Fold these 3 entries.
Entry 1:
Amino acid sequence: MDRRYAVPAVAVSVLLLAGREACADLARLKNGGEVRGAFVGESIRNQPLTMETLLGGRIVLPAEAVESSARRRPEVEEYVTRSRSIPKTVEAHWELAEWCKAQQLTSQREEQLEALLELDPTHTLAHRGLDHVLHQGEWMTRDESMRAQGYIKHKGKYLTRQEIDLLEKTTAQRQAEQAWYPRVRLWKGWVLGSHQGRQMDGLSNLRSIDDEDAIPALEDFLSDVPQIALRQLYIERLSAMRGVKPVACLVRSSLRDVDSQIRQAAFEGLAADQREAAIPYYIEALTDAQNPVVNRAAIALGGIGDFRVVPALTRALVTSHKISYDAPVQDNVSLGRTSDGRYSIGGQSGVALPPNIELLLRTGQLPYGVQVVNPQGIKTRRVSVRVNVRNEDVLASLQKLTQQDFGYDENAWQLYWDAYRSGKGKL
């Protein structure tokens, strides 16, 4: 009997690793163990597997004992050896990651960089090695960065939701939507007309709309009309529709309608299964130029209750906005003398002072000068400045979602989120 068969496969657990020169073929056993070394001949499914082990011996594994087998580069075996023995320090993980880079072991390098970031979440080179980008003070993946800016990856490209909607609409869909425009326009005209019967018919027809293809026409003709009743009808029709198509319109009205009751109705019109689709729109609104929109978006995100928005809310604690106001213009009126020695307002070409005022000036009886009042009143000019605004509603939503309060300290909130992601904290 060949003594090579004397070692039962089930008794093989994990063989000791050899040095740098070892081969790296791997056999995983059904009992949970593994054998590493070099295959002798071909590895054929359902056939005994012969291997030269890392200790220099040869072993034959019965087919029924082998779960799987794979050929690996020797560098992979060395990586496994080194990764199990290095100290858990930033320096050690970085050194091994650089070695992996030199050996073109991409996935192993990423593994080490991820381990490094668990120890030091601010390590710039590790983030760059993982192709992370710094977005508004926070390191994140490129996909996360683009999502934070309102973009979605679609067939390998980053596009806005509106662009995706246009791309995905077929000719038939566009035609179906266009067919609603003349009808909605007509019925709106009836409602606003003076014929009472037509008014009732127009309202009845608008209230009967339940086709999502009508949404673009409804938005164009009803979303911003002065008549509150028509805007309420618009929200009612959207709220009655399911799916994701009405979501964008409901979100816009919840953020931008001038009437607070309509804004609230639009948010409440989002069904539970639609709110997930609404989150990216509200996150995008956290960077809006209008500060009230930022705070309304924060309130909505707090109401939805998805704690994954904590980083986006953190970035919106303090936002920068441009404000404009009328500032008074200071007319600097100068007193000068003409060529004949007389005093004047504005120098050589100015207007002569009244005789009594000029006499007082000449005789030194006005030691503090003269204040000339502009008869046209105070002049103003439009001035724009950029200011940083602390958003109370953003902070309130963060407190609601996390049950924590770090005030407007973005760094403290970021540290809290990093601790949560690393498993050292929880929401």
Entry 2:
Amino acid sequence: VERKIKLLIEYEGSAYHGWQFQRNGLSIQEVLEKCIQKTVKQKITLHGSGRT
């Protein structure tokens, strides 16, 4: 069953290479996806929306 869940997050991102997945650096999206996947024990994909 596919579910959509809304997350409202705020972060200090100076140690990352932006929100969206990057081949050449660590992103917020990558870190959050890995943490959530570890918790729910299945593959997930995050989709960002909005701007600062």
Entry 3:
Amino acid sequence: MTLQEKQLGEKNRTGFIVGMIITGALLISSFTGMIDVGFDAKGIAALLAGVAAMVVQVIAYRKFKYQDIFYHFSCYSVFLYYVIELFTGGIFMRYVVIFPIAVLVLMYRKVKLVKVGSFFAIASNIAFDIFYAMHYGLSGMQEDVGYQLAAIVVAAASELLVCAQWERHQTETYEEIQERTARQANIAKEIMEHSEELTEQFDQAMDVSRMLNESMDSSHTSVNEIADSTRLTAEAIESQTAQTMDIQNILEKVEEQAHRMNDLSQTTAQAVEEGVDLVNALEEQAKVIASVNREASVSTNNLNDRIKEVDAITETILGISSQTNLLALNASIEAARAGEAGKGFAVVADEIRKLSEETKEATEQIGVIISKLTTEVGAATQSMTKSTDYAERQNEKILSTGDKLNSIQTNTQELNESVSHVTISVEQVLTANTKITDSIANLSATSQEVAASSDNALSLSDHSMATLQDMNRNLEKIDQISQAMREAAQE
């Protein structure tokens, strides 16, 4: 839409409103008048004419809103309805309506329209007076006929004077208008030249702006990706920091367990060493016990041999005792045969027999004792044999236990060395993990700074994008203004 069309649209809107107000006022006046005097054919015709005038104005406004032709429909429909209302509605608002009609006509600044409108107003009023005089007679107009004719003459004279003055003014200003038009043509030419230059500059600026916009889009995308990657990296570093702290805690517990295991290993090694010493002592004692058992077994065997010898001697004594008892019995028999001479010998023989019996009894008791002693010595010999076997087996077990303890001692020493190496390695890993934790903490702080910088860069990129978009909009407005200038200059 051009500036001229916009101005013409505003003028037509005002003319449409004024025309509708005039037509509406006439319709209301006519309708109220007919309510007072009654409806007749002329009044209804006047009402229909008013409605038709309003419909014509509405249709013309909707169709020719931004065209110069609209004033014909607006003004002439109002003129025609005024004439119809004048001859059908009486004298109400007869002169008052002239003023808004004049305003409507003068708004378009058309001399021809002013003359036509004035002619319609004057002619219709003259015709109305003639019609009124013919219908009612001159006697009904004697009081105000002079005023009416005077008003018509003054209105006609004023119209002629104004139109003449207007035409003269237009004639006087024609040369100025031509000169002004020439200056405007030169200005329009310069505007066209500058507008073309401005268009070229605008095209170049738009090309640069598009390139810059593409670069900014790419940069914005890259910065956005960097910001996202930085945020993900920061989150991963925070997670890694938490995991490293967990590893640090676990390593501290492992170090504590390693030190404890080292202490337990050293304690175990000491206990194993003491066990080895104890086994060695038991081995020596077992050897001594075995030696003592062997000596006791030999002594028991010797004692058994002596008992056997004593048993043989006891058998001999029993035999001698039996023979002695037999000899004593024979001596007693012989002494009895000898009579008195043999009594003393009989007493001796009897004593010898008693001693022989006592010796036999004692020898038998000794045999019983020797038999018991033999039994006990045999049992002792068996016990000593079993004890010797047990001692030998115990010695074998002690030797096996010693070998196992020696193997355990060797393994414990190797375990101590391994635990020591593990403890040292854990301490080294703990130290390295501490350094890693510190490095990750520094990296986390750095990543947070980078993330903040990325966010700032993203904000600056967004601001730059917004600024570039504003610049593009301003360039487009400049291009629109340049096009409007070219169109205005061409018109």
